[in-house]
Design a protein that fits this description.
By secondary structure, the chain is α/β, with parallel strands linked by helices. The protein folds into 2 domains: 141 residues, 3-Layer(aba) Sandwich (Rossmann fold); 132 residues, Response regulator (Rossmann fold). It is built from 12 helices and 12 strands. Strand 8, helix 9 and strand 9 form a beta-alpha-beta unit. Helix 3 packs across helix 11.
Length: 362
C-alpha cells in the first residue's frame, strides 16, 4: 500500500475508534414523563415561533407597494407630496416608496421609472418631467400591468378621457391655468391695473409651467391693452440664469412693473435681479409654489405674492386612487382631480390657512 493511502487509512481507523469510544462513554438515562412533556412543549414552541414570524413577514410582504416618482429631488413641493403619500400609506397599512431625478429631466427620470417597474411595485404615481417624452416610458409601465396615476404634471394634453393619451387612470394636480391667472391678476392689482409684466419660466414642454404661463397671458389679455407682456424667458430651472435674464429685461424695460416667476427658481432668480437693481418693492414679483424659502422671501419683501398648491393632498390622493385601482374599482376613479390654491401675501402669511399651505423641507 502506498504511503499516502496508508496514512489516510490510519486516520480513518482512528476516527472510527474515537466515535465508538464516545458512544460507549455517553450516559444513558430514561427520561421521566415530566421532562419528556417539557421537552416536547419546548420543541413545539421552537417550531411554532418561526412559523408565526413567517406568517407576519408574509402579511407585510403581501401588502401592496405604491410608488411615487417625483419630478426633482430636494424640492419642498415634492417633499411635502411624499409626506402625504407616506402618511396615507401608513394609515392604510400599505407600503410606499419614492424616488426622483436630481434634475427635472425626462432622461434622468426614465430609468427611475423603469427601476420601479423592475422592482415589481403595484401602482405608480408620477410627476412626468415632460408631457411628450415621458409617454412611452409610462406606457411601458402600464403595459406591465401597473396602474399609472399622474400627479402634479400630466402627459399628452391631460385629458385622459378624450385626449391623445388615455392610459393613466387620473391626473391629480392643480388647475395651473387658473393658478397662473390668479398670480398675474394679483400682480395687475398691485400695479393699479396697468403697466408692464415679464414672465420668467422654466422650459417649454413642461405641462404645469406651460399652463401657468398661459393663465398669466390670459390675465394680461383680459386688461384689453392696459397691461403689456414685454417678454417670456426660459431658464432651464436655474435661478442664476433667471437672474441674468431678468437683469437684461430690467435694463431694456426701466419701467417694468412686475415679474411672474412660473416656479420657485424662476421667481428666486427674478427677485435677486430686482434686488440687485435696487428695485425691491417697485417691481413686484409673484412666486408660484410655497416652500419655506419663498415664505422667507415674502417676509423680507423680496417677493410680493406666493401661490401655494396643495402637494400633501396630491400624495394622499395617490394612495387613495392606487388602492381603488388595485381593488378592481378603477372605473370609479375620476380622470381629473383638480386641487386648489392658497394665495399668500404679507397680510395673511401668519394665518392658519397660509401656514398649512407652506411646503415642508423635510
Amino acid at each position: 500500500m502506498p504511503v499516502r493511502r496508508r496514512v489516510w487509512f490510519l486516520f480513518g481507523l482512528i476516527a472510527i475508534l474515537a466515535l465508538a469510544l464516545g458512544a460507549c462513554a455517553a450516559p444513558v438515562t430514561a427520561p421521566t414523563d415530566d421532562s419528556g412533556s417539557e421537552s416536547a412543549s419546548t420543541e413545539a414552541a421552537a417550531t411554532e415561533a418561526p412559523a408565526e414570524e413567517s406568517e407576519g413577514e408574509a402579511a407585510a410582504g403581501d401588502a401592496p407597494t405604491i410608488a411615487l416618482v417625483y419630478g426633482v429631488a430636494g424640492d419642498g413641493f415634492y417633499i411635502t407630496m411624499e409626506r402625504g403619500l407616506r402618511e396615507a400609506a401608513e394609515a392604510a397599512g400599505v407600503n410606499a416608496v419614492a424616488d426622483g431625478p436630481s434634475q427635472f429631466d425626462p432622461v434622468q427620470q426614465t430609468p427611475i421609472l423603469d427601476a420601479m417597474v423592475a422592482r415589481g411595485v403595484d401602482a405608480i404615481c408620477i410627476a412626468a418631467t415632460d408631457k411628450q417624452a415621458m409617454v412611452e416610458p409610462m406606457q411601458r409601465a402600464n403595459d406591465a400591468g401597473i396602474p399609472i396615476i399622474s400627479v402634479d404634471t400630466f402627459v399628452g394634453d391631460g385629458d385622459y378621457e378624450n385626449g391623445p393619451v388615455t392610459f393613466p387612470l387620473s391626473y391629480v394636480g392643480s388647475d395651473n391655468v387658473e393658478g397662473g391667472r390668479i398670480a398675474c391678476n394679483a400682480l395687475i392689482d398691485n400695479m393699479g391695473g396697468e403697466g408692464k409684466i415679464y414672465i420668467q419660466n422654466v422650459k417649454p414642454g413642461v405641462s404645469t409651467t406651460d399652463q401657468r404661463e398661459q393663465g398669466c397671458r390670459e390675465a394680461i389679455e383680459a386688461t384689453n391693452g392696459a397691461v403689456e407682456l414685454v417678454g417670456v424667458d426660459y431658464n432651464d430651472d436655474s435661478a442664476a440664469v433667471a437672474a441674468e435674464q431678468t437683469a437684461a429685461v430690467l435694463q431694456r424695460e426701466p419701467d417694468l412693473g412686475a415679474v411672474f416667476g412660473a416656479n420657485l427658481f424662476s421667481a428666486q432668480g427674478a427677485a435677486q435681479a430686482v434686488a440687485n437693481a435696487g428695485l425691491t418693492g417697485v417691481v413686484r414679483v409673484a412666486n408660484f409654489d410655497a416652500p419655506e424659502a419663498a415664505i422667507e422671501d415674502l417676509r423680507n419683501e423680496v417677493v410680493d405674492i406666493v401661490i401655494a398648491q396643495l402637494p400633501y393632498e396630491m400624495g394622499q390622493k395617490c394612495v387613495e386612487y392606487s388602492l381603488m385601482a388595485l381593488d378592481g374599482n378603477a372605473d370609479e376613479i375620476p380622470a381629473r382631480w383638480p386641487t386648489g390654491y392658497v394665495e399668500i401675501t404679507r397680510d395673511n402669511v401668519d394665518s392658519e390657512e397660509a401656514q398649512n399651505a407652506i411646503y415642508s423641507s423635510n
